[in-house]
């Protein structure tokens, strides 16, 4: 859409009619669907082209055909990403990741491996909770962390089906044992050093209390999904959250020179963090910055993602490397800090916000 078409459809402030509803719960509904991770990305192009085709050829039956189109799109996603497709080596996704893994992923740095070990050595309980099934998780983790990847975590939860892991009650989300990548019987109590499937955050908290010897341990959850890793753990579990947001680096960052303390205790930052290759993929002049936009009057308009990020994340970094390079006792400013409504960005504030 052109700028004129956007204003004609959404008004000068560019406010979508479902914006307030989406800010309150940030989940899919019968009115809209959130494309918010790399698994979803092909669906944006697919559905946009299907909509264009229907609008051009459906005559007066667009609405009914749109509903059928969406059901077909969901069926296609379910077929492409169904869990059994990994073991069966079928579909358009899993065979590629299995056959050429390093075409799609990078090995973890020694800094991150060291950091994970330091966390555990300092008495922190480190857990992995992923929506990936156990066989796919094992494949990815071995390629990224190594064959000893399980040694970095106190407990591992696969097929957690976030955001339901956080939003649904324990009686509807039991844990299951995992044997040879297959989910087994229900489990009531979790143990250190084991892997489980599905589950809920409340039962996990019982184990974290035991591992830390604290009645109310402070939990910091790190992830790259606003919908699954940031919004629900903050809303339902009141955990502290760290969002990994590659768009920061793609948009470019300006160093926050108000950080206190010696240079050794500041996040590493380079004026060369601006990555043109990433920017070409993640940022487009066609749809504008990820975090903010401008109304026709020139005032700043915070996007849906910008709002959820500020209200649900404590801090936001472009890569895990930025955390791993800092001492464990480093003090971060957060988005709740009174100094700036964007104070949670580290190691610098995206240039699009500085404009």
Can you describe this structure?
The longest helix has 20 residues, at 62-81. The chain is of the alpha/beta class and 355 residues long. It has 16 helices and twelve strands. Helix 3 (41-57) runs antiparallel to helix 4 and helix 11 crosses helix 14 (304-312). It has a five-stranded mixed β-sheet with strand order 1-2-5-3-4, covered by helices on one side. A three-stranded parallel β-sheet has the order 6-7-11, with helices on one face.
Radius of gyration: 22 Å
Class inferred from helices and paired strands: alpha/beta
Give the percentage of residues in beta strands.
5-15%
Biggest sheet architecture? 5 strands, mixed
Q: Which strand order do you get reading across the main beta sheet?
A: 1-2-5-3-4
User: How large is the count of helical segments?
Assistant: 16
N→C terminal distance: 23 Å
Number of strands: 12
**Low-pLDDT windows of residues:** 260-273
**What string gives the helices and strands in order?**
HHHHHHHEHEHEEEHEHEHEHEEHEHEH
């Amino acid at each position: 859409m052109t700028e004129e078409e956007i204003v004609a459809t959404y008004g000068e402030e560019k406010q979508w009619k479902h914006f307030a509803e989406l800010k309150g719960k940030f989940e899919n509904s019968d009115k809209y669907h959130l494309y918010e991770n790399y698994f979803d990305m092909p669906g944006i192009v697919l559905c946009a082209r299907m909509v264009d085709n229907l609008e051009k050829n459906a005559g007066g039956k667009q609405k009914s055909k749109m509903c059928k189109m969406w059901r077909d799109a969901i069926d296609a996603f379910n077929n492409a990403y169904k869990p059994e497709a990994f073991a069966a080596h079928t579909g358009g996704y899993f065979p590629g990741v299995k056959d050429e893994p390093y075409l799609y992923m990078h090995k973890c740095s020694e800094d991150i491996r060291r950091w994970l070990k330091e966390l555990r050595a300092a008495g922190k309980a480190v857990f992995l909770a992923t929506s990936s099934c156990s066989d796919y998780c094992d494949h990815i983790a071995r390629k990224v962390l190594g064959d000893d990847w399980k040694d970095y975590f106190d407990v591992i939860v696969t097929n957690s089906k976030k955001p339901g892991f956080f939003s649904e009650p324990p009686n509807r989300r039991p844990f299951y044992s995992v044997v040879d990548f297959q989910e087994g019987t229900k489990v009531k109590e979790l143990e250190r050093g084991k892997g489980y499937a599905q589950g809920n955050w409340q039962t996990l908290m019982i184990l974290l209390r035991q591992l830390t010897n604290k009645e109310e341990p402070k939990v910091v959850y790190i992830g790259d999904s606003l919908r699954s890793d940031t919004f629900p753990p903050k809303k339902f579990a009141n955990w502290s959250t760290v969002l990994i947001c590659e768009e920061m680096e793609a948009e470019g960052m300006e160093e926050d020179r108000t950080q206190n303390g010696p240079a050794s205790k500041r996040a590493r930052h380079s004026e060369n963090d601006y990555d043109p290759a990433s920017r070409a993929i993640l940022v487009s002049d066609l749809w504008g910055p990820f975090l903010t936009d401008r109304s026709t009057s020139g005032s700043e308009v915070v996007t849906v993602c910008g709002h959820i990020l500020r209200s649900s994340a404590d801090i936001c970094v472009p890569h895990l490397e930025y955390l791993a390079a800092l001492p464990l006792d480093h003090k971060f400013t957060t988005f709740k800090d009174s100094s700036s409504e964007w104070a949670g960005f580290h190691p610098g504030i995206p240039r699009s916000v500085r404009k």
